[in-house]
Structure formats: C-alpha cells, structure tokens
Amino acid sequence: MRTALVIGTGLIGTSVALALAGRGVRVHLSDHDPGQARTAAALGAGTDAEPDGPVDLAVIAVPPAHVAATLADAMRRGLARGYLDVASVKGGPRRELAALGCDLARYLGTHPMAGRERSGPLAATADLFEGRPWVLTPVGGQAGGTDTEVLNLALELVALCRAVPVVMDADDHDRAVALVSHTPQLLSSMVAARLEEADETAVRLCGQGIRDVTRIAASDPRMWVDILSANPGPVADVLAAVAADLDETVRALRALESSDAERHGAREAGIAGIEDVLRRGNAGRDRVPGKHGAAPAAYEVVAVLIGDQPGELARIFADAGRAGVNIEDVRIEHATGQQAGLIQLTVEPQAAPGLTAALRERGWSIRQ
Prior knowledge:
By secondary structure, this protein is of the alpha/beta class. It has 13 helices and 11 strands. It has 3 domains: 166 residues, 3-Layer(aba) Sandwich (Rossmann fold); 111 residues, 6-phosphogluconate dehydrogenase C-terminal fold (Orthogonal Bundle), CATH 1.10.3660.10; 68 residues, VC0802-like, CATH 3.30.2130. Helix 6 crosses helix 10 and helix 10 packs antiparallel against helix 11. InterPro entries: 6-PGluconate_DH-like_C_sf, ACT-like_dom_sf, ACT_dom, NAD(P)-bd_dom_sf, PDH_C, PDH_N, Preph/Arog_dehydrog, Prephen_DH.
C-alpha cells in the first residue's frame, strides 16, 4: 500500500491515518468539516489535499448511519482500488450498499476493537490499535464475494496498525459487539445517571468500584446514539436478558427485607437468588481473555501506599524491577481529599512475597 484516503477524521479515522503515515503511506484526509481534516493534517496524519487519482485504499471512518452513502459516493467517483469502513456495526451498512447497487466485491466491512472516551482528531494516537482485535467481515463465494485484492489491502492495513485480524460474519459481529461493547456502554451510563442527583455526601464516598463501572459513561452521547441506532435489535436482546436478571435480583433483595419467622423460606430463596447471579457473574468474568489474549490467570495483588508526587510511580516500578518481578497489571485507587493513594501491583502468585519484602526493605508502606 502506497496511498490511502481516510474519509472522516475523528478519533478512529485520524488514528488510522497517523499509523499509516508513520509507516510511509501517503495519506489523504477528507471530512465534511474541512477544519477537522486540517487539524488531523497538522497532527501529521497526512494531507488534506485531494489525491491526483485513485488511491490504493479508501478508509471510511464515519458514523454507521452515513457509511453506505459515503461509500457509494466514493465508489461512484472512483476514488480507490479498494474500500473498507471502520464502523462499529457491519450488517446494516452492507445491506444498504447492496440496496444501492454498489459493487460489494471492492468493499470490506471492518471494525477495529479500540477506542477512547474522548473523540475527535486531537484524541487520536498512532498506537491506538496495537495488539487490539480488528474484525474483518468478508463475503465468501465467487459471485459477489470480496475481491482478494481488497482483502489483502485490509490485512495490510491491520498489519500496519499493528492490530490482530479476526474474521467474522457481519451479523455475528453485530450480535457480539452488542454483548461486549454496546450494552456495557448503556449499563455504565445507567449507573452513572444515578449519581446525577445523588446527595453530595454519597458522591464523596465514590471508590474504585464505581469509577470502574462508570468510566465509559464519559463517552460522547451523540456518537453512541449513532452506534446504537445502527444495532438496536441485538442490543435490545441483551438488555432484555439483563432486565430479567434485574427483576429476579430485585425480588430476591425484597425477600431479604423482612426478618419475620414466616418469611424464612422466602429469605432463603432470596439469598440463593443473589448468590446465583453473583456466581454466574464470576463464571462470565473468568471467560474474559487475560494478558496477551490468553486465558485468565490467577494473580495476586500487592497494594502499596503511594504519595502524589512526581517520580513516585517511576520509583516503585524501578524497585520492582530491581527485585526481579514483572508487573502484570497496575491500577491506582486515589484517596479522597488526600495527596496519596493505593497502587495495586498485579503479579504472579509466587512473586508476591518477594516483591512485598523488597518494597518494605526500600521503605514502601504495604497495605494488606
């Protein structure tokens, strides 16, 4: 791939352009807002000048509702040898393209499974996709199937962005992202919405749990309206199943409100119902891929009190390195109203005692 055209210079489009430009591809940028394309160009993502002729690959990075129309226009103008989109919904745009009579052999629907809570070109980064799954949804068969050249261009794009290609059926993809991406966004927003009018004393008690659950609730509502409008059925199916669990859990909790002797059987059923949903949650969480996409491993956490001063993170990582311990994961829980917090170092179980001793020896305060 020598040349590319990125249509849509938001977070994903600009990140694709930055990755390609950084690896020697001449990238042309286009956006319905010329100022946004100029911003992306100023960041080093390419040029906002129109290409002299057809480019090797056109990447359509617009909201799902606009994918088909944008692709159809690009194909009509003959802007590229191959075309793909990076929208988070795949089945609908393909059917719309077919209804418009477009040549589907020159098109491949894709979806990089990466993003941030922030949007726009200023949030873009060339390494956004590194190590992340990038779904490809080619159409098989000789008649109307995805052209091999287009598939190869898509695979080259994924490689240049240092992502991991995953081939799926378009509708299977939409059901999958409804479960692992779209529904979590709504649930996060629903929990965060409970905080809007909560008493200030309750909000001050927010800890790491509520921060984890509501992190993605900071996402752009307009962007998510576009996404959810393009995949309403599969998301509604998942939410209906969640709603059934919620109904059962509410009934179980209500049964625990009474301590009357005659309610003993109901209380036992309530406890069993709550335990059931929690255990099923454990089982589901255990299926989430761990480090490098492998099966989840059993790790231990070494919690260390850390001050909010420059250099503290570098110092604790250096001390862990001197102890010969590899940090598998890290998270920080900030203390409300204090210039300190807990840093949780996730390590292999056999490494935890040695790391604990080494950090204590170097003056760190370990918390159990």
